[in-house]
Amino acid sequence: MLGIDLFSGCGGMALGFQMAGVKIDRAYEFWDEAIKCYEKNFQHPIKKADLSKFEFFADEISCLNPDIIFGGPPCQDFSQAGNRREGNNADLTIAYAEIISRVKPKWYVMENVDRSRKSSAYTNARKIFKKAGYGVTEIVLDASLCGAPQKRKRFFSIGLINANDGFLNHSLEKNLSKVPMTIRSFFNGNFEIEYYYRHPRNYNRRGIFSIDEPSPTIRGVNRPVPAGYPGHPNDPVIAAGVRELSTLERALVQTFPKSFIFPSESKTINEQLIGNAVPVKLAEYVAKAVMNYHLSEKCPEEKEQLILNL
Ligand SMILES: C[S@@+](CC[C@H](N)C(=O)[O-])C[C@H]1O[C@@H](n2cnc3c(N)ncnc32)[C@H](O)[C@@H]1O
Fold first, then answer.
1. Ligand 1 pocket check: which of 8, 39, 96 to mutate, most ligand atoms within 8 Å of Cβ?
2. Is 146 an active-site residue?
3. CA-to-CA distance for 157 and 37, rounded, in angstroms?
4. Which of 63, 75, 146, 299 is catalytic?
5. Pocket test for ligand 1, best of 24, 30, 109 (most atoms within 8 A of CB)
6. Phi, psi dihedral angles at 34 (to 5 degrees)
7. For the chain, domain boundaries
8. How far apart are CA 197 and CA 191, in angstroms?
9. CA-based, 20 to 30 A from 79: which of 4, 202, 278, 299?
10. Rounded distance, CA 58 to CA 104, Å?
11. Which residues line ligand 1 (CB under 6 A)?
12. Which CATH architecture best describes the domain 2-178+277-309?
């Protein structure tokens, strides 16, 4: 299955799709630091592109004739961490849908924060997908039930041309773990610390977490325990002596392999790239459901050929 990666970031989603057997032809991204990181980790090319100019890129991508387009348009407009620049980023959700409707790959997968599902941008994007002839599966997945040690809920809109709405729900739900993945079990006990600090949005929430639970969402910023941290009744231990996760630990919790390179000398940039990414294992979980469905539709000879190509 030949894929195109839009709004690729450093490539969390790309790596998961690649691990599930999608052959990525090309990625598109706007931010130089993300491009540099992506280039270090993948063989296929990445192109610098402002995808708000979707007409141009839709024509270019059409010539590549992909089977699947996947990507997560930027989400600040929808997420709690957002800076309230309503509009611009939501427009990129529409740009994504416009590219899909013009290229018309057999499949698309769009990822975003869970609240984006109720946004007017997604409502409009959905109309574009439907008008282009896609059956749409919409699901919020918790990464900790899909093989990643992190409670990160993400919305996926998955389209297959001429299918019924909800066509992939069963496949996506049947393999969900019954038990959330903890950091201890994911790393088989090989994790340096027992407790760590994750700066809460406000002090009504706790800041200390145990490795015997999934981590909370890895965000784009990381802070040590501030002098003024008041503690919280649900903290499993007091904050004294507890540190924040390191950049490497955060990448590993996002299920990047140790070999994945974050080349920037700036910790802030690497943290941002890591926090923006789809956990690799979550992306792989979704892509495997897509691949299995795709294979199940094929005749035996085609299936054999596809498996040989994986
Ligand atoms: C949520 S992140 C994608 C993360 C990625 N899917 C991953 O798993 O690593 C969204 C990306 O969109 C990029 N972006 C923002 N505006 C863009 C634009 N106009 N054109 C292309 N990319 C853009 C950002 O630089 C950011 O890397």
1. 8
2. no
3. 26
4. 75
5. 30
6. -70, -40
7. 2-178+277-309
8. 15
9. 4
10. 10
11. 7-13, 29-31, 34, 49-52, 72, 74-75, 92, 276-278
12. 3-Layer(aba) Sandwich (3.40)
Residue 236 in tokens: 């499993």
**pTM of the predicted protein model:** 0.94
| Collapsed DSSP state (helix, strand, coil) of residue 130 | helix
Q: How far is ligand 1, taken at its centre, from the CA of residue 289, in Å?
A: 24
Q: What is the pLDDT along the chain (310 residues), one digit of tens a residue?
A: 999 999 999 999 999 999 999 999 999 999 999 999 999 999 999 999 999 999 999 999 999 999 999 999 997 666 544 444 446 677 899 999 999 999 999 999 999 999 999 999 999 999 999 999 999 999 999 999 999 999 999 999 999 999 999 999 999 999 999 999 999 999 998 999 999 999 999 999 999 999 999 999 999 989 999 999 999 999 999 999 999 999 999 999 999 999 999 999 999 999 999 999 999 999 999 999 999 999 988 656 556 666 665 5
What separation in Å is there between the alpha carbon of 272 and the centre of ligand 1? 11
